[in-house]
């Protein structure tokens, strides 16, 4: 495990580089296949609307995977993530057009822990709505 | 109808081993658009101290959620899966999942709560490798929304 960021170089409040992640219907089809989650609310508009959703929504686990990238890209070694948890607060609604939706993720160091570990708090927003709550990762730095 | 509290603490038998494949990890990394070479290039993974390519942090959910199906589909528990949404998800790793791992999952019902007619189910999945070493624990909170009044 070799994170590229040194524990000494990080302070509480250090901001991680923010990233934006596009999501289209094609993204969701690909994720369904890769993850094995074929719930039709993620690809069938009629089904999604029949169960009371505004439209097809992204897999919560897809959003969770994208949010993690702000941490893993920063750390340099994805294996440096030792804990990661989120609450799914609002769905990412994905319209059937070329643009789809966008997930904006930012993060900052919220606490320095023992064993060269830090806690990073993440914020994920789509269409002006916070889509993840309590989104936190613990990372072991160099 | 509220779920039976006596199911709290129930542990289901370990699943048959799931063998983590390099190409499955590659497919998953491509699906989430993540170009980290740690997922696809064994030499790059080795330079980071890993024995083989590793999986992204959320990859293991596909395995633990399938295992949680034992709980979700337990006819004795009687969860209405058509009303279920994913509430929370958390992972705690002893080490990253890597290609070649043969992983088994042991699922336990950690908590059952009833809140405003919603059934809330906490399932813990303990993931071990072939040597019996702990790899990751996954906590999944499922919320079965209350049925509308007829």
CATH class of chain A: Alpha Beta
Which strand-content bin applies to the residues of chain B?
Answer: 25-35%
Question: The CATH topology of chain A is what?
Answer: Thiol Ester Dehydrase, Chain A
Percentage of residues assigned to helices of chain B: 10-25%
Beta-strand residue percentage of chain A: 35-45%
| Biggest beta sheet summary of chain B | 5 strands, antiparallel
Compute the separation of the termini of chain B in Å: 14 Å
- Topology, number of strands of chain B: 5
Secondary structure class of chain A reads: alpha+beta
- The total beta strand count of chain A reads 6
Protein name (chain B): UPF0336 protein FEF34_15340
Domain FAS1-like dehydratase (chain B): 6-137
Organism (chain B): Streptomyces marianii
Family (chain B): Belongs to the UPF0336 family.
Nutshell version of this structure?
The complex is a heterodimer of chains A (142) and B (150). Chain A has 142 residues and is of the alpha+beta class.
Describe the structure.
The complex is a heterodimer of chains A (142) and B (150). Chain A has 142 residues and is of the alpha+beta class. Chain A has 3 helices and 6 strands. The longest helix of chain A is centred in the middle third of the chain and has 16 residues. Chain B has a single domain, classed as Hotdog Thioesterase (Thiol Ester Dehydrase, Chain A), CATH 3.10.129.10. Chain B has a 5-stranded antiparallel sheet with strand order 1-3-4-5-2, covered by helices on one side. The longest helix of chain B is centred in the middle third of the chain and has 12 residues. The mean pLDDT of chain B is 94. At the A-B interface, helix 1, helix 3 and strand 2 of A face helix 1, helix 3 and strand 2 of B. Chain A: This is Dehydratase.
């Amino acid at each position: 495990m070799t994170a590229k960021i040194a524990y000494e170089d990080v302070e509480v409040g250090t901001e991680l580089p923010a990233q934006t992640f596009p999501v289209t219907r094609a993204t969701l089809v690909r994720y369904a296949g890769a993850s094995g989650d074929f719930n039709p609310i993620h690809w069938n508009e009629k089904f999604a609307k029949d169960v009371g959703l505004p439209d097809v929504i992204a897999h919560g686990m897809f959003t969770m995977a994208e949010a993690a990238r702000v941490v893993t890209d920063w750390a340099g070694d994805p294996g440096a993530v030792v804990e990661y948890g989120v609450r799914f607060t609002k769905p990412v609604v994905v319209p059937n057009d070329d643009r789809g939706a966008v997930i904006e993720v930012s993060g900052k160091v919220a606490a320095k822990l023992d064993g060269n570990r830090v806690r990073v708090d993440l914020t994920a927003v789509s269409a002006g709505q916070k889509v993840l709550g309590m989104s936190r990762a613990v990372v072991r730095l160099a | 109808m509220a779920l039976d509290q006596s199911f709290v603490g129930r542990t289901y038998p370990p699943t048959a081993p799931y063998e983590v494949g390099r190409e499955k990890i590659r497919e998953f990394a491509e699906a989430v658009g993540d170009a980290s070479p740690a997922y696809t290039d064994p030499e790059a993974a080795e330079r980071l101290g890993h024995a083989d390519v590793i999986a992204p942090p959320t990859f293991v959910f596909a395995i633990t959620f399938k295992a949680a199906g034992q709980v979700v589909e337990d006819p004795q528990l009687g969860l209405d899966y058509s009303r279920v949404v994913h509430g929370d998800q958390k992972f705690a790793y002893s080490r990253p999942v890597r290609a070649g791992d043969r992983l088994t999952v042991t699922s336990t019902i950690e908590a059952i709560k009833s809140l405003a007619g919603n059934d809330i189910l906490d399932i813990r999945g303990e993931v071990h490798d072939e040597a019996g070493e702990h790899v990751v624990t996954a906590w999944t909170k499922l919320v079965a929304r209350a049925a509308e009044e007829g």
